[in-house]
Amino acid sequence: MGTVLLFPFFIIILIVMMFSAGDSNCDVSENDVSVSTQNETTSQLASSTDPFKSGTLANKNAKYVFDSFIHNGVTGAYAAGIVGWVNSEGGFSMIGRAEGHFGNDLNTNSLSKGVLPSVMSGYPIGKSGRAEGGGGIFQFTPFSKFAPLGSSDWENAEKQVNFVIKSISGGDWNASMDLSGGRHSFQEAVKLTDPKKSSLTWQAYERGSVAHINQNQKQADAQRFFDLFDGAKYSYNANKFQKAFGNSVNNTNNVSVSSSDDSDSFNSCDDSISVSGSWASDGSGEVHYRDLNAWRPNELPKNLKQYAIDPKSVGLSYRNNKGWDVIAWSGGQCTDLSASLMNAIWNKKGSKPVQKKGNGSDVVFHWARFFGGKISKKPKAGSVFSQTSTSAGGVFGHTGVVSHVFANGDILVVEQNFADFSGEHRGFGKYTWNYRYVTKGAISSGYTFYDPSQSGYQISPKLKTVA
């Protein structure tokens, strides 16, 4: 009950490059890293789509991205890993490709020609004010965050790559999503010497639906590019990397926790996360995260702590059942955290609400039925949420508690049983929780909320944040 898989959204996969000076035996000079643009017609594209065939358009674009990484000091294995991952995302045969379009005709498949992504519903809200799919080499999502529809920038690889520089340099990297098993920071990842392992670290940037990621294909492509582009020649160059990225990649978003140290790190978590701080008002705060950003308690970025309610402040223990007074199932499902936390944070004249009926997708319905009031599409801090099975990607849907609503309408939630961040779904353990960022666009696709204050309940004064 309450099991949830990662969302079935195709999220962007981005890669990084910056240009810097430096000398070594295997340098790629600025002259070698030439600007790649695309204006081929249908017939030309049809014969240029194989990235592993020397001289094709796709091959040239792939080599351009590879060289850009090398020029910034990363290993050849890492550069090949990124190119291998991207090959099955936006790809290299059409650099302005709109998501969901798979043809070879620029006029009917490229954002530069005014072609919209065929998949829009449920995606993040773009500058248009509506949900937008992805586009480009790296499938920027929503597409308008890179360039408007019809812009010639969609046919300029240099501008697309440079756009990525800003994102990674700004710390847009969630090491807890790394699929390689190492939870590498970005600075650690660029030193890897295995192209297959390198490719899997890029889920820390893309953060897409694991169910829709063909990890074997990405690893195989990474190895092929490594061999094709002589990746073994290129070692990590600290000077070039520091010139390109400085220390900007070492921030609170770059969480490095070895997968073999989960137990130790959570003992540390219990000691280090204090119960203090005040709860910020809804509609406040500006942070910049995407859907599928999730964190275990000890991995929560500093700029989110003031918005993250702490279940321990109202008596719930971490990794044992103390304070978990309302168990809906086994103690390790999403419904268990939802029921126990709602029971702990709400109060009416000394009475606590007890509601533990329903699968994740049904929880909000049963709250409204038992306590009265309306189900809402608008989140509010302290509200319980339900997520449909279609939205959550599982049979039973999902549930949790809203921690904060940001100024832009995005929310931070606390939950259990999301991927391998907490709960029993992937064997992490009972009586645990994680935090997750949900965008306004995702909320509109399958989320409902219930606020007990409409039935006379009030938030417990004991409830604090982890700030």
From TrEMBL:
Sequence ranges assigned to domain Peptidase C51 in this UniProt record: 309-451
PROSITE patterns, sorted: CHAP
Domain of life assignment: Bacteria
Pfam families: CHAP (PF05257), Phage_lysozyme2 (PF18013)
InterPro entries named in the record: CHAP_dom, Papain-like_cys_pep_sf, Phage_lysozyme2
Protein name in UniProt: Amidase
Gene3D superfamilies according to UniProt: 1.10.530.10, endopeptidase domain like (from Nostoc punctiforme)
